[in-house]
Specification:
- Helices cover about 45% and strands about 15% of the residues.
- The protein is an alpha+beta fold.
- It has a four-stranded mixed sheet with strand order 1-2-3-4.
- A hairpin with a 5-residue loop joins strand 3 and strand 4.
Length: about 120
């Protein structure tokens, strides 16, 4: 998943940011009274909500790193089943340990996700 959308943290950071800006924008009346006067207010909403967006993205990045550290399986079938169900959550290049043997998550020439033995 792209950063900021869905994924490890369970939040859609972009959607939450847009909702925050909209909610802030709706509070602008009775001041400023006109569209021309409200430019600074819109910038304030974007700035205030941008802080929340940044925090959300950082939280998701941290959760993704933590999840990447935990990809250990006892058997290949279990690893493959888990990866098929969670392919949107793992990044290419993730190290997956199966029965003590390290593999790297990559893509085949045909575009399929594969576990390639990790050469150290």
């Amino acid at each position: 998943a792209a950063l900021g959308r869905g994924g490890a943290g369970g939040h859609d950071c972009q959607k939450e940011h847009e909702e925050c800006v909209e909610k802030c924008w709706q509070k602008r009346y009775p001041w400023p009274h006109s569209q021309e006067q409200s430019g600074w207010y819109y910038k304030r909403c974007v700035s205030d909500c941008g802080t929340q967006y940044t925090d959300c993205v950082k939280e998701q990045e941290t959760a993704a790193r933590e999840n990447a550290k935990k990809l250990e399986f006892t058997e290949m079938d279990g690893a493959m089943m888990w990866l098929k169900r969670h392919k949107a959550e793992v990044a290419l290049g993730t190290i997956v340990v199966v029965g003590g043997v390290a593999f790297v998550l990559t893509v085949s020439a045909a575009g399929a996700l594969i576990l390639a033995p990790l050469a150290l």
